[in-house]
Amino acid sequence: MTRLDQTHNPKLESWVHSANGHLDFPIQNLPLGVVSSNNGSPRISVAIGNQVFDLRKAVAVGLFKGQCSKLEEAVSGETLNSFMALGEGPRQALRVRMSELLARGASEQDRAESCLHDADNCTMHLPAIIGDYTDFYVGIHHATNVGNQFRPDNPLLPNYKHIPIGYHGRASSICPSGAAVRRPKGQLKQPEALEPQFGPSQRLDYELELGVWMGPGNSLGQPIKIAKAAEHVAGYCLLNDWSARDIQAWEYQPLGPFLGKSFATTLSPWLVTPEALAPFRMPQTPRGESDPAVLPYLASATDQREGGLDLKLEVLLLTARMREQQLAPQRLTLSHTCHMYWSVAQMIAHHTSNGCNLRPGDILGTGTISGVDRTSYGSMLEISGGGKNPISLANGEERSFIEDGDEIILRAHGVRNGYVSIGFGECRAKVLPAI
Ligand code: MN
Fold first, then answer.
1. What is the Å distance from ligand 1's center to 71 Cα?
2. Section 171-192 average pLDDT
3. Of the candidates 125, 143, 176, which is a domain's last residue?
4. Residues 6+ apart with CB under 8 A from 69
């Protein structure tokens, strides 16, 4: 696991003034993304306060002289795939160098300043070309709540505590934060109807998830052992797994999610590195006393001790009427990554246990991370009890599911005494009417 070093020092401040006290991007974070400014070509950049730092420019003006040439080449490209493939060593080296360049009193401040752009003038892209996307189901309260709606006597299926459940998602429809989402049409069958109809989904929902970006990965036929799994994580983001519950309910048997999921997935655009998250590690939440022991390929004492994440997760809603009334987004949910029944290392060890290869830039979703009560549920399906109990918003509106014009915003923050808090930036998208 990543150790703490001078880059985590809570006293460290940046000469980029907006970074000091910034809720997401102080100098202790330094996430990477792909950004274009003023209609230029996409550049790999680092977020610092309300600025972005252009790494290709920094290489061109000689700020990375003496660093490994592979790193210089990887950060000069238009996607982060090559950088993700390099793994831990070069990623740490970049972090140390960025911390040095952006720290107050840096001797090369003048040259570094020439690499900055206002984030407001920038367009964010997906950080990598995503070959494959897999969505897990590790939020145990979500699995229990959803199971309860279908099987009140037996909410968790018997496999849940033995195997990290997942399915192969759709990579082509993954969009960066800010891109609007079109309400899908599909086959819908009302419970009392004899035949399905085709039309716009009436039960559009979001799912609050953490996204895991893969680093080096494995060759086909070569599983990643759980002890090595953490070395294959390039970083984290927020993931909204948009879900059309009515399409999903009709289509999912016997092969699982398909068109109810594949119309859109939204990601926050910044790659928050494992190094930035080092202060926000915690033990994996203990399994219940009556839970079965895990099979050896999923067992690691180190992973149980420090493989958990200590991140607060939020969902906010901004409706069209709230925008007209100039109201701020309303928080629907405050949850936490401690509600993951399986760790990220267990997800990776399980995914590759049959020899399946994961590649740099692949993304894994954790599954919806819900807490134990309605204030911490990570989907409208849970909050409204399948549509039976709409929630009332502060301006008098009601919601059971997501309406056209609604904007869903996910946020995540690491907060711990003795450390500077960091955040992920927003994962935001507005829903457009079906066409
Ligand atoms: Mn999901």
1. 34
2. 96
3. 125
4. none
CA distance 178 to 426: 9
pLDDT in tens, 365-374: 999 999 999 9
Spacing, Cα 218 to ligand 1 middle (Å): 24
> What's at 100, amino acid-wise?
E
Preceding omega of 254 cis (within 30 degrees of 0)? yes
Q: What is the CATH number of the domain that holds 82?
A: 2.30.30.230
In a shared domain, residues 244 and 393: yes
Give the chain's domain count. Answer: 2
The Å distance, Cα 208 to ligand 1 centre, comes to: 8
Give the separation between CA 31 and CA 37, rounded to whole angstroms: 17
* Res. 1: pLDDT tops 70: no
Same domain, 239 and 257: yes
On whether residue 1 sits in a domain, the answer given is: no
* Residue 142 known to be catalytic: yes
- 8, 141, 142, 339: the active-site residue: 142
Specify whether 185 is located in the same domain as 114.
no
For residue 264, report the distance from its CA to the centre of ligand 1, in Å: 11
Q: Are residues 227 and 196 in the same domain?
A: yes
Range(s) of the domain holding residue 31: 6-125
Distance 120 CA to ligand 1 centre (A): 31
Last residue of a domain, one of 125, 155, 171: 125
Q: Tens digit of pLDDT for each residue in 325-360?
A: 999 999 999 999 999 999 999 999 999 999 999 999
Specify whether 80 is located in the same domain as 158.
no
158: alpha, beta or left? (left if phi > 0; alpha if psi -120 to 50): alpha
Measured distance CA(69)–CA(89) in Å, rounded: 13
**Residue 99 has which token pair?**
């911390």
